[in-house]
Write a structure and sequence with these properties.
This protein is an alpha+beta fold. The strands form 2 sheets. A 3-stranded antiparallel sheet has the order 1-2-3, covered by helices on one side. It has a two-stranded antiparallel ribbon with strand order 4-5. A hairpin with a 5-residue loop joins strand 2 and strand 3. Keywords: DNA-binding. One of its GO terms (cellular component) is protein-DNA complex.
Amino acid sequence: MTETATAPLTGKALLQKVKELSHLPRRETAKRCGYYSVSKNNQARVNLTDFYDALLAARGIPLDPEGAKDGRGREATYRVSVHKNGQIVIGSTYTESMGLKPGDEFEIKLGYKHIHLIQVDADKNGSRNGKVAAEEGEEGEEEE
Protein backbone atom coordinates (compact mmCIF):
# COMPACT_ATOMS: atom_id res chain seq x y z
CA MET A 1 0.00 0.00 0.00
CA THR A 2 1.27 3.51 0.77
CA GLU A 3 3.85 4.55 3.33
CA THR A 4 4.45 8.01 4.70
CA ALA A 5 7.97 9.09 3.78
CA THR A 6 8.68 11.60 6.57
CA ALA A 7 6.93 12.84 9.68
CA PRO A 8 4.82 15.83 8.63
CA LEU A 9 5.51 19.19 10.24
CA THR A 10 3.00 20.67 12.66
CA GLY A 11 2.58 23.80 14.74
CA LYS A 12 5.04 26.68 14.52
CA ALA A 13 7.52 24.64 12.49
CA LEU A 14 4.86 24.14 9.80
CA LEU A 15 3.97 27.84 9.72
CA GLN A 16 7.65 28.82 9.42
CA LYS A 17 8.26 26.34 6.58
CA VAL A 18 5.15 27.54 4.71
CA LYS A 19 6.43 31.14 4.91
CA GLU A 20 9.81 30.03 3.55
CA LEU A 21 8.17 28.13 0.68
CA SER A 22 5.54 30.74 -0.19
CA HIS A 23 6.95 31.10 -3.71
CA LEU A 24 6.20 27.41 -4.53
CA PRO A 25 2.86 25.91 -5.63
CA ARG A 26 0.69 24.53 -2.82
CA ARG A 27 1.25 20.87 -3.78
CA GLU A 28 5.01 21.31 -3.67
CA THR A 29 4.76 23.18 -0.36
CA ALA A 30 2.66 20.38 1.15
CA LYS A 31 5.11 17.77 -0.14
CA ARG A 32 8.14 19.58 1.31
CA CYS A 33 6.36 19.89 4.66
CA GLY A 34 5.96 16.11 4.76
CA TYR A 35 2.33 15.78 3.72
CA TYR A 36 2.74 13.05 1.13
CA SER A 37 3.00 9.29 0.92
CA VAL A 38 4.83 6.99 -1.47
CA SER A 39 2.80 4.34 -3.26
CA LYS A 40 4.08 0.89 -4.16
CA ASN A 41 5.10 2.12 -7.66
CA ASN A 42 7.29 4.79 -5.97
CA GLN A 43 4.99 7.69 -6.87
CA ALA A 44 4.50 10.50 -4.37
CA ARG A 45 0.89 11.31 -3.47
CA VAL A 46 0.38 14.72 -1.87
CA ASN A 47 -2.20 14.85 0.92
CA LEU A 48 -3.54 18.40 0.73
CA THR A 49 -6.44 17.75 3.11
CA ASP A 50 -4.18 16.84 6.02
CA PHE A 51 -1.89 19.72 5.08
CA TYR A 52 -4.73 22.26 5.22
CA ASP A 53 -6.06 20.77 8.47
CA ALA A 54 -2.59 21.04 10.03
CA LEU A 55 -2.27 24.65 8.83
CA LEU A 56 -5.60 25.59 10.38
CA ALA A 57 -4.69 23.85 13.64
CA ALA A 58 -1.29 25.59 13.69
CA ARG A 59 -3.00 28.96 13.33
CA GLY A 60 -5.34 28.12 16.20
CA ILE A 61 -8.48 27.75 14.12
CA PRO A 62 -10.37 24.67 15.35
CA LEU A 63 -11.91 22.90 12.39
CA ASP A 64 -13.95 20.45 14.47
CA PRO A 65 -14.40 21.90 17.98
CA GLU A 66 -16.71 19.13 19.23
CA GLY A 67 -14.25 16.35 18.54
CA ALA A 68 -14.63 13.35 16.32
CA LYS A 69 -18.17 12.25 15.56
CA ASP A 70 -19.54 9.48 13.46
CA GLY A 71 -21.27 12.03 11.22
CA ARG A 72 -24.69 10.44 11.48
CA GLY A 73 -27.96 11.71 12.86
CA ARG A 74 -28.90 14.92 14.60
CA GLU A 75 -27.91 16.48 17.88
CA ALA A 76 -30.42 17.01 20.65
CA THR A 77 -31.35 20.71 20.87
CA TYR A 78 -33.59 20.50 23.96
CA ARG A 79 -36.23 22.59 22.22
CA VAL A 80 -39.71 21.71 21.06
CA SER A 81 -42.21 23.61 18.95
CA VAL A 82 -45.95 23.57 18.58
CA HIS A 83 -47.10 21.80 15.43
CA LYS A 84 -49.86 23.12 13.17
CA ASN A 85 -52.36 20.77 14.79
CA GLY A 86 -51.57 22.29 18.21
CA GLN A 87 -49.56 19.38 19.59
CA ILE A 88 -46.16 19.48 21.21
CA VAL A 89 -44.08 16.39 20.48
CA ILE A 90 -41.07 15.44 22.58
CA GLY A 91 -38.59 13.24 20.71
CA SER A 92 -37.37 9.81 21.71
CA THR A 93 -33.90 11.14 22.58
CA TYR A 94 -35.37 13.15 25.43
CA THR A 95 -37.77 10.49 26.67
CA GLU A 96 -35.00 7.87 26.69
CA SER A 97 -32.64 10.18 28.60
CA MET A 98 -35.38 10.71 31.23
CA GLY A 99 -36.03 6.97 31.47
CA LEU A 100 -39.62 7.22 30.26
CA LYS A 101 -41.51 4.30 28.77
CA PRO A 102 -44.49 4.13 26.41
CA GLY A 103 -47.69 4.61 28.37
CA ASP A 104 -46.22 6.87 31.10
CA GLU A 105 -48.76 9.55 32.00
CA PHE A 106 -48.18 13.11 33.16
CA GLU A 107 -50.19 15.88 34.72
CA ILE A 108 -49.49 19.28 33.13
CA LYS A 109 -49.01 22.23 35.48
CA LEU A 110 -48.66 25.64 33.88
CA GLY A 111 -46.44 28.14 35.63
CA TYR A 112 -45.10 31.57 34.77
CA LYS A 113 -42.83 31.05 31.72
CA HIS A 114 -42.60 27.28 32.25
CA ILE A 115 -44.53 24.03 32.08
CA HIS A 116 -44.14 21.23 34.64
CA LEU A 117 -44.85 17.64 33.71
CA ILE A 118 -45.67 15.62 36.83
CA GLN A 119 -45.69 11.86 36.37
CA VAL A 120 -49.08 10.49 37.44
CA ASP A 121 -48.08 6.92 38.29
CA ALA A 122 -45.03 8.14 40.29
CA ASP A 123 -47.35 8.95 43.22
CA LYS A 124 -48.24 5.25 43.52
CA ASN A 125 -44.61 4.11 43.58
CA GLY A 126 -43.48 6.79 46.03
CA SER A 127 -40.70 7.93 43.73
CA ARG A 128 -40.56 10.78 41.28
CA ASN A 129 -38.79 11.33 38.02
CA GLY A 130 -35.55 13.26 38.70
CA LYS A 131 -35.59 16.96 37.90
CA VAL A 132 -39.34 17.04 37.28
CA ALA A 133 -40.01 16.17 40.94
CA ALA A 134 -37.50 18.74 42.22
CA GLU A 135 -39.09 21.48 40.16
CA GLU A 136 -42.55 20.48 41.36
CA GLY A 137 -41.48 20.87 44.98
CA GLU A 138 -40.01 24.29 44.27
CA GLU A 139 -43.14 25.39 42.46
CA GLY A 140 -45.40 24.30 45.32
CA GLU A 141 -43.36 26.33 47.80
CA GLU A 142 -43.42 29.44 45.62
CA GLU A 143 -47.16 29.54 44.97
CA GLU A 144 -48.38 28.95 48.52
